[in-house]
Amino acid sequence: MRKSLFEPKNEVVAMNAVKTISTLGLFFALGFAAAGCGAARPSKYYQLTPPTASPTAPAQDALPVTLLLGPIYTSHLYREDRIVYSSETQQMGTYETERWSEPPVEMFRDVLVRKLRGSGRYRDVNSLRSGAKGDFILRGRLYDFKEVNAKPLSARLSFELQMQDTKTNGTVWAHVYNHDEPVSGKDVASVVAALDRNVQRAASEVAASLDEYFSAHPPAAK
């Protein structure tokens, strides 16, 4: 049977149609991929409010004491920059795009150093890793620094600190802190603000407790 002269043309048309459909499919696939990339939420970063600027020199009645703030141990969650949340049970998680500017344990440690230094009550306050020599070393453990999804919503901070006399290597002071600060809003920024208030409250409490200790145990002048 003789083939029609139009059959080859139809075959070309069919092949061109397949190519056109494939090209359109690739175009839409790339379009959806680009739309997906564009829809990614940018990360937001938060930080704690540092205490007021440290004085250029200690007060005239400053204690003849140099404090060193040593390591504060904690979970790996608080050594990363993710903001942590938890339920009323043991389950915990982290936000993907809401993050701290620094790991929480480092920010907490810096606030304590600046609070104690800014009080003007001590001859000097330094970090142990600075290589400075001191009369007492503060060490501790950070247990909680997180949002707690309960009723009401709260920001939990819990830790313990101990102070060691560098001459005797004995522990002469200890302080335990555990407080849930109410969160005023329902967004992450409100949680951060509540954690910030909690840290400022804790730093003031630690400074007052140390002041009481040295008032009861006045160090000898050097």
Structure explained in plain terms:
The chain is α/β, with parallel strands linked by helices. It folds into two domains: 1-40; 44-216, 3-Layer(aba) Sandwich (Rossmann fold). It is 34% helix and 32% strand. The chain has three helices and eight strands; from the N terminus they run αββββαββββα. The protein has helices at residues 7-38, 104-118, 188-216; strands at 44-46, 63-74, 82-86, 92-100, 122-127, 136-148, 154-165, 171-182. It is elongated, with a radius of gyration of 30 Å. The N and C termini lie far apart (119 Å).
Outline:
The chain has 222 residues and is α/β, with parallel strands linked by helices. Helices cover 34% and strands 32% of the residues.
Question: How are the secondary structure elements laid out?
Answer:
Layout: H1 7-38, E1 44-46, E2 63-74, E3 82-86, E4 92-100, H2 104-118, E5 122-127, E6 136-148, E7 154-165, E8 171-182, H3 188-216
Parallel strand pairs: 1-4, 2-5, 2-6, 3-6
Antiparallel strand pairs: 3-4, 6-7, 7-8
The main sheet comes to: 8 strands, mixed
So, CATH architecture of the largest domain? 3-Layer(aba) Sandwich
Record field, number of beta strands: 8
Low-confidence stretches: 1-36
